[in-house]
Automatic annotation (TrEMBL), chains A, B:
This is TetR/AcrR family transcriptional regulator. The keyword Transcription regulation applies. Gene3D superfamilies: Homeodomain-like, Tetracycline Repressor, domain 2. Residues 13-73 form the HTH tetR-type domain. GO terms for molecular function: DNA-binding transcription factor activity; transcription cis-regulatory region binding. Keywords: DNA-binding, Transcription, Transcription regulation. Residues 36-55 bind DNA.
Length: 189, 189
DNA sequence: CCATTCGCTCAACACTTGTTGACTCACCTG
DNA sequence: CAGGTGAGTCAACAAGTGTTGAGCGAATGG
């Protein structure tokens, strides 16, 4: 066996990916503070020092692990705004990427995560606001209510496991939310 | 001065109250994990060991500090359900007691806090559900949507400081939410 | 007024944490 | 095949954590 099955660079990339996967999973499950570098290293079958060598710090590891986080994949257009918002429910209730879960889970206790989420939601609110009919009063506020409503439902479902939400199919939730969202989108407040 | 201005028992009660106040404030500001017994003790001008002596453990201190937490003060009645829900917005946006803030802030990272909040919200959902018109389809789910919506708005405002929500007066938020809530309370889904 | 209680502090333990530097050894290159 | 490079490990440090037991001194009660 003169040649190993994997080149050094390949192994390197693989270990780095394994570390990032373990980190993402643990950050999503326990949040930033309660996830230790040692736990990540163990989950990735690697020495803790290697995690440091690759990512420099726990913070940097977190940033790298959760990157490409987005709550609302696409920017909505004005025609079917409500339907587009409701369509993200499928995504939010169960299909949420681990990076997003990690970010959301840490947002109430880690200022850096809070800032990140706030900025992301602010951007999202701007998008929704712009998609509302121009005649609408208080478009930013309405947009914020759309977004925070979805945030609340997500938290209640994914993080708290509220019993009334637990068994409900996303379609039914969307169906009940639809009239409410339509009312919220009505220009005449 | 044969008699001190405060009896020993008075001093004891006062110190205990001071510790509880400091704990509540710090737990509300930083959450369970990031609040240290030493920090609480310092804020209360007391030795860390005394905190342990009085409360036994950090967990117990937390429980005692946040006690009497409730998100929805009164159980709603069926007539003016929506108005009662909207009326809690004043309370939630700024007037939230520190104990509640502490509990909410820790709910995503501390399983004990998560369970507490989940149970509290479940109970609240039951109450709202019972207050809905008997002809309503999926009353628990609708109730859950009411509660999670308010939760989302609260988080967006109090914890994330979303810009679109920051400057908005509670009345205006309530006014915009009213048609949406009315639609959600409509028996015909 | 003296013995006792008890509020309170001091110093320390045992543990976990993020982080670092020296080291080993397999792989790559000339 | 020899020398270097770099992936990966080992052991340790320094700081911070919850928690504990011995002790001090003032209020208390007989």
């Amino acid at each position: 066996m003169s040649t190993p099955r994997q080149s050094r660079a390949d192994r390197r990339r693989a270990t780095e990916a394994r570390i990032l996967d373990s980190a993402r999973e643990l950050f999503a499950e326990k949040g930033f503070d309660r996830t230790t570098i040692r736990a990540v290293a163990t989950a990735a079958s690697v020495d803790p020092a290697l995690v440091m060598q690759y990512f420099g710090s726990k913070r940097e590891l977190f940033s790298r692990a959760v990157q490409a986080f987005s709550v609302l994949p696409e920017t909505p257009d004005s025609d079917a705004l409500v339907e587009q918002l409701l369509a993200t429910l499928d995504f939010k209730l169960g299909g949420l990427p681990e990076g997003a879960v990690a970010m959301l889970r840490s947002m109430l206790t880690d200022p850096a995560a809070a800032e990140y989420v706030r900025d992301a939601l602010d951007r999202q609110i701007d998008g929704v606001s712009a998609a509302l009919s121009p005649a609408t009063e208080y478009p930013e506020l309405r947009a914020a209510l759309f977004v925070t409503t979805l945030l609340g439902v997500t938290i209640g479902h994914q993080f708290l496991g509220l019993t009334a939400l637990h068994g409900a199919p996303p379609d039914r939730i969307a169906a009940l939310l639809r009239p409410a969202f339509k009312a919220l989108a009505e220009p005449s407040g």
